[in-house]
Amino acid sequence: MSQAEVDGTKSEGGVSFSSEARAAVDALLAPVDAELARRYPGEPSTRQPVHTVYVPADVFAADTVQTWGREALEVFDTHAGTPAELAAALGVPADELLTEVHARVRAKLEREPVEDLRIDFEDGYGPRPDAEEDEAAVRAARLVAAAVADGTAPPYIGIRIKCMEAAVRARGIRTLELFLATLIAEGGLPEGLVLTLPKVTYVEQVTALVRLLEDFEARAGLPAKRIGFEIQIETTQAILGADGRATVARMIEAAEGRATGLHYGTFDYSASCGVSAAYQSMDHPVADHAKAVMQVAAAGTGVRLSDGSTNVIPTGGREQVHAGWKLHHDLVRRSLARAYYQGWDMHPAHLPTRYVAVYSFYREGLHAAAARLTAYVAKAGGDVMDEPATAKALSAYLLRGLDCGAVDSAEVTELTGLSRVELDALAGR
Fold first, then answer.
1. Domains in the chain, start-ordered, CATH in brackets?
2. What is the pLDDT of residues 122-179, one digit of tens each?
3. For residue 333, what are the CA distances in angstroms to 17, 87, 291, 295, 399?
């Protein structure tokens, strides 16, 4: 409403707020408005991968993604060659939905088996002689650059460095420096570049990486904040500090707009809470508490969430594979229901159930979400009276399904009458 409209309205209503009072309110809240816009920019417009695959740096190769795809397809065809076999493995109905999911998952494993790949220089790699890690960092960057150039790289790819603690700090910084510098020399930083900072305990460790990246960008002639990074939440100190404050919220602030994600580390975090090895899992109460704190801290900031992994590998005979698949499938579905739309996968045999769980999640709710969104846009009401925030969530749900291949643009448009651009607008992207 314009000032003229306000002034025109006040004369009809008798006593009204003075222009001085309104101006004072605007002045009072102007800093708050600016702070809200800075701290809570909303959901990013980019695609979020459904998983992150971690591969030790010494075993990463030019054909790693293709190898994972072949191995995942082989185990899928061997132990779930038909929808009925898949249903038996997971304990779900062998219905039309699962038949559609089965076909889509097989096509996904052929087309894009890995959405996000992290080359690991931390726990999966371990301590090595400096010369060996130097060589591995340069080699990894050259392989990434080549994969990006020939179109075989996954949409997102990068490295996990060693943490910022004193014992390994210099080594982690050196690896990061070599990796980034080699990428620049080989043609530039890829659009889907992702870096991961593990085992963060203090806010200052996040600030330290920010300062390093600022320095690198300036020296390389890159735009400010070109390089972002994920923060791995693997320690109790990252959730609750010694001062009783939620450290993870302060870490997001300390990243100064560079934090792209918070990744929960299942086993390190559980161990730091004293959970014995047999009970360290994504669904343990300590995991749920940590992830709930992460979720609230990240809400609205544009920082995305990722759950952890299971270390139960679906290999061996059919019974063992099916048991591992059911565990993994159920954990992924649990995460999705709790708005954790990404997780870690540690083995090619995890890929089939990652995509079965994800695709089922988006396909089984497709028609209901489309109907509710259509009714909202048409202001037609219906069985559920949705508000703008829910319409935003419904649009985001459909967009996530589109991004991963669970649903197609044509069927979403047919059901909703909305284009991708219109869905993006409703989702606030």
1. 51-362 (3.20.20.60), 366-426 (no CATH)
2. 999 999 999 999 999 999 999 999 999 999 999 999 999 999 999 999 999 999 999 9
3. 52, 15, 15, 17, 18
